[in-house]
Recover the amino acids of this structure.
């Protein structure tokens, strides 16, 4: 089954404790992206990757890191999480930005 | 700052009526336009995409694009209770500083009442 998977689905952590949210897709897509969704603000793009070893900042990259060492994986790293990073995070993949994005199930992160 | 704007709603629509959703965008370099539907607690899923000026119909959904006026709309005909969701407008641009980015509006909540 073609899909985007994210882990964990739910995470509660404390300020400053490094965490990684994994994202994997099995559709051989070049383009992958991370979004956060907050009430009233919609989906905001954090980072995106056009292909392996090619990543770039979206609109809200501060406090996040990404890497793209393999085509299928695009982990999101929060090296020192803060409460303002409490949000719902979505990973997405596609063949490019001009076509449909396939979204993962989301990761709900709470930073206390 | 390039923006995509939508009315947040809620847009209350009687069952069987037409729901009309609007989206405006600020980047004249925008090339591709998408409508996603998102049920509460779920991931967005694609409803329609449109690239050219004019109308595009798919079942009960019609997307309308006017690049000169920088707006894209979505019509939902014969609205059903299952259409109750948040609808997200998304825009991508091929300008140099926006290459690769995809911008979403905040979404319009639609409530279809029986």
């Amino acid at each position: 089954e073609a899909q985007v998977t994210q882990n964990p689905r739910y995470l509660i952590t404390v300020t400053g404790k490094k965490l990684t949210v994994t994202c994997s897709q099995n559709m051989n897509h070049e383009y992958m992206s991370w979004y956060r969704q907050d009430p009233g603000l919609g989906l905001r793009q954090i980072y995106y990757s056009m292909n392996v070893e090619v990543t770039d900042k979206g609109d809200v990259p501060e406090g996040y890191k990404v890497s793209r060492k393999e085509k299928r994986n695009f982990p999101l790293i929060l090296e020192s999480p803060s409460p303002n990073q409490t949000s719902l995070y979505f990973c997405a993949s596609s063949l490019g930005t001009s076509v449909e994005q396939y979204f993962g199930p989301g990761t709900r992160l709470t930073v206390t | 700052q390039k923006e995509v704007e939508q009315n947040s709603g809620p847009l209350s629509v009687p069952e069987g009526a037409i729901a009309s959703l609007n989206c405006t965008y600020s980047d004249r370099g925008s090339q591709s336009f998408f409508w996603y539907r998102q049920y509460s607690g779920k991931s967005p899923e694609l409803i329609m995409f449109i690239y050219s000026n004019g109308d595009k119909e798919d079942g009960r959904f019609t997307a309308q694009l006017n690049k000169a006026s920088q707006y894209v709309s979505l019509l939902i005909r014969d609205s059903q209770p299952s259409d109750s969701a948040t609808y997200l407008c998304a825009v991508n641009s091929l300008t140099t500083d926006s290459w690769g980015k995809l911008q979403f509006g905040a979404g319009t909540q639609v409530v279809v009442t029986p």
Observations:
- Chain A has no helices and eleven strands.
- The CA atoms of residues 18 and 79 of chain A lie 4 Å apart.
- The radius of gyration of chain A is 13 Å.
